Amino acid sequence: MRVHVDAERPNPRKLQPAVDALKKGQVIVYPTDTGYAFGCAMSSPKGIAAIRKLKGLDERSHKPLTMIVAGLTDVGRFGVLGNTHFRLVRRLLPGPYTLVLAATSEVPKSMHNRHHEVGLRVPDHLVCRMLIGELGEPLLTGSVTPGEDATPELEDAEELENRYAREVAVTVDVGPQWPDPSTVLRMIGDDIEVLREGKGTTVRERRGGAAAAAGANRARRQHGPAARPAGRRLLAHLHRPAVQHRPDPAAGAAADRA
Question: pTM, whole model, 2 decimals?
Fold first, then answer.
């Protein structure tokens, strides 16, 4: 089943089939600020297992699963976020960032990686917020992109519905979207590791002001995610605690393009 929703002015009634499917423990496809994604209710073991299968991740994987939460309060509820990083995170969210944090006891163990970590996102997308609000709990999420090394292609909801007809109950269609992965930051202790440089705001864009950021966004819409400024550095590099780069392809796939 596919439901059409206005991304700028989503109607709760049109989202109801997706909410009903989530409450039954089923998997949906829905839009985020980084492209289309699989989603299920955090409380559904059946849904979590289904998304693990879709993403090819077993419970021994080093990659943490990622959940979509409503805001900073929920980030602190499900992940251990020290005061050192809180001010930075408050500037980044909502937005295209995935925070890899130590999981609290409120996170289902089936979502942990082997290091007891979890990914947390607060997307800047009205449909995401409305889904969480109507469902009343976070969403487990994982991008529909086949893999980190896959060539980005324009994602069409009708095509996704046909491709995953057996696995997905409802597809929320807001029109074609370019997949553009989130920036993944691992925040454990006082340090920040940049596991993947993605769509998140760059220093170059911030220095250039609104016009530069708007120009970069136009380029992404026209040409896809590859059209990013060369030589960019992450906003996280401005943060005082040590920021470590880990050029590990497997680590860079953490949170699976969430």
Answer: 0.77
